[in-house]
Amino acid sequence: MIIVGLLSSMPAMIIFWIIKSSLKSKFSNSKEKIILSLYSFLSVWITFYIVDNGFITRWSEQTIWVLIYSLTIVLGVWIFELNKKEITE
């Protein structure tokens, strides 16, 4: 299960980085964080859907962990500051 999580997280992180870099100057911080939060939450639940072969039919311990994981990622998007400045030397 850890290997499946690792393999499914890598493309999601790359897509997250691509979305973040493409939104760098187009939106305000709050709109950018909302978009990144929606993507983060959906990517976790889509992965859960693919691995579990369907939507949630009943609450289980696995469902609670997926909910905690997705909410942790969304909180991380809001806690950490987005760097909008380009680094120049």
From TrEMBL:
Keywords: Membrane, Transmembrane, Transmembrane helix. The chain crosses the membrane at residues 6-23, 35-51, 63-80. The keyword Membrane applies. This is Uncharacterized protein.
